């Protein structure tokens, strides 16, 4: 008895009818059909809506660069004094 066998499906159908009854199966199939119809309608509504314009983006604020203070030259953690400068 294979999965695609006709007898397999007949037995499955009989078991479902016995467990749920004829009224319950038709109710389930009706709900299933309503769900598919609602899904298709939702897809059509989504396609028919005009695309919303993108939200306005605020440009980032440009912060002016602050000048970097001149650094003194150091040698082994000690400040090097320039003795050859012309500013005396």
* Average pLDDT rating: 76
Which spans of ≥5 residues are poorly predicted at pLDDT below 50?
A: none
- Rg over alpha carbons: 40 Å
SSE-based structural type: mainly alpha
Strand content: under 5%
Measure the end-to-end span. Answer: 109 Å
Helix content: 40-55%
Q: What profile does the largest beta sheet have?
A: 2 strands, antiparallel
Principal-axes geometry comes out as elongated
Can you count the beta strands?
2
The helix-strand sequence is HEE
This entry's quaternary arrangement is single chain
With helices defined by DSSP (H or I, 4 residues minimum), what is the helix count? 1
Strand order of the largest sheet: 1-2
Helices and strands in order, then pairings?
Blueprint: H1 6-48, E1 74-75, E2 78-79
Antiparallel strand pairs: 1-2
Care to give the gist of this entry?
By secondary structure, the chain is mostly helical. Helix content is 49%, strand content 5%.
Could you please describe the fold and organization of this structure?
This protein is mainly α. 49% of the residues lie in helices and 5% in strands. The chain has one helix spanning 6-48; strands spanning 74-75, 78-79. Strand 1 and strand 2 (78-79) form a beta hairpin. The radius of gyration is 40 Å and the shape is elongated. The relative contact order is 0.04. The model has no long low-confidence stretch (mean pLDDT 76).
Main attributes?
mainly alpha, single chain
């Amino acid at each position: 008895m294979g999965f695609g066998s006709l007898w397999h499906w007949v037995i499955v159908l009989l078991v479902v009818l016995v467990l749920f009854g004829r009224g319950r199966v038709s109710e389930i199939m009706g709900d299933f059909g309503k769900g598919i119809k609602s899904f298709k309608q939702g897809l059509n509504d989504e396609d028919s809506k005009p695309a919303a314009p993108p939200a306005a983006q605020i440009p980032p604020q440009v912060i002016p660069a602050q000048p970097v203070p001149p650094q003194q030259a150091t040698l082994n953690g000690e400040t090097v004094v320039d003795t050859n400068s012309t500013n005396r």
